[in-house]
Amino acid sequence: MASSKILLIGGLGYTGRHVAKASIDLGHPTYLLVRQSTASNPHKAELLESFKASGANIVYVSVLEVIFYVTIVISRPVQTSECEGCAGPVNESQKEILNHFTCKCPNAGDLDLVDVLWQGSLEDHASLVEAIKKVDVVISTVGGTQIMDQLNIIKAIKEVGTIKRFLPSEFGSDFDRVHAVEPAKTAWGYKVKVRRAIEAEGIPYTYVCSNCFATYSVPNLGQPGLIDLPRDTVSILGDGNAKVVFVKEEDVGTFTIKAVDDPRTLNKKLYLRLPANTYSFNDLVALWEKKIGKTLEKVYVPEEALLKTIEDTPFPANLGIAMGHSVCVKGDQTNFEIGPDGVEGSQLYPDVKYTTVDEFLDQYV
């Protein structure tokens, strides 16, 4: 059976580039939907040329025309969710997100902030339809405020009517099962809304629950802001016993592409609960201590203190902390058994020789 033709939306982003490379390496005719202005970004232009040289087909459209706003605001009012106004021009699907997170309110004290707004558009329906007609499978790896714009992808897929599988932008926990607090609750809630929209339209799907990206989480032992692995003191959220799964980004790409033509993953959640990469943070720290031959001082952050930090920290800085609460304190990646609506990647594809956490840490010793 011939490999499916795959369209990647967001294929030059952090996650998308790994999925794109895997698609090409595994022999799929691969199409990347990119904006005309990509050439103005030297790094992305170089990446795009490498994909073209590997055989990828490039579909240039205005559908992903992007504006990047960086607004430095000194001593402006604290953001609240009670106001109407939003920073910057937005489309309707983004307005709900921005109303919740970036509205200005005169009711509270002053705060020094840097607001970053990434605004994209997936509203060129005709371009989307034409691109989707070329392929069998659509994979979205869009991020940030473009999550709800995937409703436009769903509309286009429904109109085309021949797509065998849609993989929306997931690549984290199983968002139907998390016990998240704000602002992670709202951010992840949009991904759940996209799931329900896919199902309501009867579109064949696979949801990739890849858990934590290893390159994000392992080099700092889950401590945002650290550049190098700690060698003296380490902070651990909660009691450190919740099991967390770490997957190298290249392996996320490989497992994702393995699933697109597999009937066992049709209308299922694909969990990457890799046995060799499932650790509590206590176990992860112990592994690191063994590698460097030194015992670290451990500072445990109780859940109550962590929740207070989330509450007191302005958005977007508190988003990552709230996600850490879900993953590291609540154990939302592993605190349930995989049911009939899901399958586990390493069991389906034992031939994939994924990078283990043990191997990954060796480069930092």
Automatic annotation (TrEMBL):
SUPFAM superfamilies assigned: NAD(P)-binding Rossmann-fold domains
InterPro entries attached to this UniProt entry: NAD(P)-bd_dom_sf, NmrA-like, NmrA-type/Isoflavone_red_sf, PCBER-like
Keywords tagged on the record: NADP, Oxidoreductase
Span of domain NmrA-like: 3-62, 117-361
GO molecular function terms noted in the UniProt entry: oxidoreductase activity
Pfam hit, one: NmrA
Gene3D superfamilies: NAD(P)-binding Rossmann-like Domain, UDP-galactose 4-epimerase, domain 1
UniProt-listed PANTHER family: ISOFLAVONE REDUCTASE HOMOLOG P3-RELATED (PTHR43349:SF93), PINORESINOL REDUCTASE-RELATED (PTHR43349)
Protein name in the entry: NmrA-like domain-containing protein
